[in-house]
Amino acid sequence: MPLDLIPAILNIVNGLGERMKKLSITKTILVMTTIAALTTLGFFTSMSGGLVEAQSTAATQSSQSTPPTPKEQPDVAQQFTFNPTSLPPTNVDQCVGYAKILVGKAIPDYNMCDLVVYRQAPVVARSDGMVMNNFSGMGHYIELIPAAQFLNDTQEFGGNTTTNASTTNGTTQTNANNTTTNNNTVVAFGEFALLDPEVVPVNEVLDKYNWTVTTIHNHMLDESPKLLFMHWTVTGNPDEIVQQAREAIMQTSSYTTITDPNAAGNATRPGTPSSAGP
Asked: Based on the structure, what is the number of domains in the chain?
């Protein structure tokens, strides 16, 4: 081969190498761009599907429910009290009437009225499958206490003292009326057991009636679905408070009748929770 052809051949080879190099870089960029586009598309598709599924699940879980028609006559249980200083319950009929409004359970205790509404849906189960709905601590709890006795007579709920003055034979006589207590005013404490999507609707009801939410937290770690417990307090007329509590509970699925596909024809209930709820 003539020596003068060697530089020409080398130039051709180098030119081909540069073209291949540029082609390889271009091809690599195209491949990487395609992979990135497909990955991004898959990511957003997955996110979109996940959000749609989450929203659908939340909408289902946060559905409202209406209390069923309560019994005309309640099932009556007995109380067994061993504390020697305990006093018998008062206003039993009133407390029972409130439980009927809520379709729950009344627990009269001296001058207090404890009310429990059991969640009927969804089934809340522990990690080992144990149904937790049957425990009153996993439901809605309301306690009504006379405000004057709870806050003492020096507070604003103790009533007003009025003075009447009259003049007889030039002598002024002053008669002070006894301090009267508004017996229709109670301090209420309690908590609602809520699914995550129920927290906001229930809080809106409480905020509408100026209830004070004191805390929101978990009681357990391994139940499914998770429950959040909203603690609250409010002072006012017990009739109004119970109606407001009913409205708040109706923002949840608590009253929903659940069905058990495995329930036999002689099953006492169509659903799994079997405590004193509806």
From this structure: 2
